[in-house]
Amino acid sequence: MKIQRLKGQSAIITGSSSGIGEAIAIELAVEGAKVVINYSHSEKAAFDIVRGIKKNGGEAIAIKADVSNENDVKDMFKEAISTFGTIDILVNNAGIQKDASITEMSLNDWKLVLDINLTGQFLCSREAIKEYRRRGLTETSCALGKIICMSSVHEIIPWSGHVNYSSSKGGVSMFMKSMAQEVGRDKIRVNAIAPGAIKTRINKEIWATKEAEQKVLELIPYNRLGEAKDVAKVAAWLASDESDYIHGTTIFVDGGMALYPGFVDNG
Ligand code: NAP
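Above: the input record for the complex with NAP. Below: its predicted structure, written as tokens.
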């Protein structure tokens, strides 16, 4: 029988009603973690995921919370801790795109993306760290707690037409590293994952047609689009003690997208 690497632990995965977050929640549940499916709008999807996890013998609850809203985040942590006793793993995954050229981008859309993609990670991490320190070490993990921040290849690859999104992910990179430096001595382990092009609803236009997919494949040396499960497998490993000495690092899950593939025959 497969050993469950997260048995006895609890996790909040923000934005887990869809895409990468959904896959991570399912994977962590398979590894034995009790999981919170967080959503802001997709209620039915969130409860369907909870049902699916329970059907497979896992434990899950759904909690509605807008990660950019301080009170929502505090309430989500309260509910999660009162249900599961504590939280051991936070996956800061919720994120959106609101694309426009810079002169067409509204201040609202600039702020919305920064609020959800970056401030949301700050608000959730702050609550997680307080809970890890309150609870103290347990026998379920070498670490006091784990935080995984969802970044993107666009933390290093500039992206015209998406200045709000790429700025938010550049911010996530420095947020993650500064936080890792600050809380490492408490045995709180902080890392990030930078996905490349993963097939989810956020980027449907890049895989909806064969032509669109072919165009994006030119940017991926490994020559396939990513699946949400590719990211979920890495998240499960990063949340487990198998990666106990990995701290303050971003793991790129991108089929080589960050290797400047434009230079293959053009450098
Ligand atoms: P997705 O399928 O659109 O999922 C986004 C999730 O975030 C949904 O569950 C959504 O829930 C939730 N969400 C949005 N706003 C929220 C808020 N204010 N509070 C709480 N939850 C909120 O997109 P995805 O591709 O899985 O993206 C997940 C993460 O991966 C994002 O951070 C994204 O930037 C990152 N990423 C994705 C790719 C890719 O190629 N797909 C590449 C690099 C990085 P509701 O529907 O309920 O709002």
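Notes for the reader.
The radius of gyration is 18 Å.
The domain at 10-203+226-260 is CATH 3.40.50.720 (Rossmann fold).
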